[in-house]
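Suppose a colleague, Dr. K., hands you the sequence of a protein chain of 114 amino acids and asks what its three-dimensional shape might be. Before reaching for any lab equipment, you can write down a predicted structure in token form. Begin with the sequence itself:
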Amino acid sequence: QVQLVESGGGLVQAGGSLKLSCAASGIIFRLNVMSWYRQAPGKQRELVAGITVSGSTNYADAVKGRFTISRDNAKNTLYLQMNSLKPEDTAVYYCSALRSVRSWGQGTQVTVSS
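The predicted structure, expressed as tokens, is then:
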């Protein structure tokens, strides 16, 4: 059974930082493309950042230069370091794993106050 468990969300002031983690089980983590998505109230879920099996990364334009995605295959864990946070980054952040099928975590709330 696939489990993706996000943690590290919370309330932070604009300009602050948070680091999200996603602990994976039930999958061969190192063979999965891993991603972070987010969904703000009233908006569609959108890709924030992704990291391939080989470690290549991609980012949404809105977060380039502020967010960093990384993975630790030994710990089966995905990370998202978020710096210089803005109120518009407020959303539920979801971890996603993709190999033959896509799996989702339950999400963690990030709230950035102005």
